[in-house]
Amino acid sequence: MTRDNLRCIKRNVSCGLTMFTGIVEELGQVKKILRRGNVTVITVTAKKVITDTKIGDSIAVNGVCLTVVRRETDTLGFEIMSQTLAVTNLKSLRISEKVNLERSLQVGQRLSGHFVSGHIDCVGIIRKKSQRNDTVNFEIAVSKEAGSLLVPRGSIAVDGISLTVASRKGNCFIVYIIPHTLAHTTLSFKGPSDQVNIEADMLMKKQVLP
What we know:
- This protein is α+β, with helices and mostly antiparallel strands.
- The protein has helices at 3-14, 82-86, 144-147, 179-183, 202-208, and strands at residues 26-36, 39-45, 58-61, 64-71, 75-81, 98-103, 122-132, 135-141, 155-158, 161-164, 167-169, 172-177, 195-200.
């Protein structure tokens, strides 16, 4: 990450543009799904991220930037447009399913993962899930366009989780998941043929895309 890129992103955050870090704060659970024309309303339980959250704030749900439209004691409500459903795995959500939750980055907040915008590049498909010593390895297939943005040891967000690309072959890549990450994210119950939201490193996009 160059100093210019870092300054640019910090400037975006300070100007009010929404950013995330890819560090999942908690697993929420889908309580309600209501479809109304081109809009789907979901209600998700939350404990940690609900703190200091108000209507209009942004929350990453499985890595997708959504706006809070309703807040109750232990639930948050989000409206999702049909276009967003079409390009993310949120279209497949079911009642009681767990989702990754993260509040947006605040000015001056410590950055532990990498910069994530919450705008999904494609839906990836898990091809393999295997154990290797203390880690669990995932092989994930992505679109050709997303694959061109991946480099070994580069950053990637999978369902909103900040991870490092261990290796890449064609349009597939491998990530290694430590026990803590596995236990506290959706990857704990996902396996072959499941869908995951993919967002390539925004700094790589800045260098590669016109």
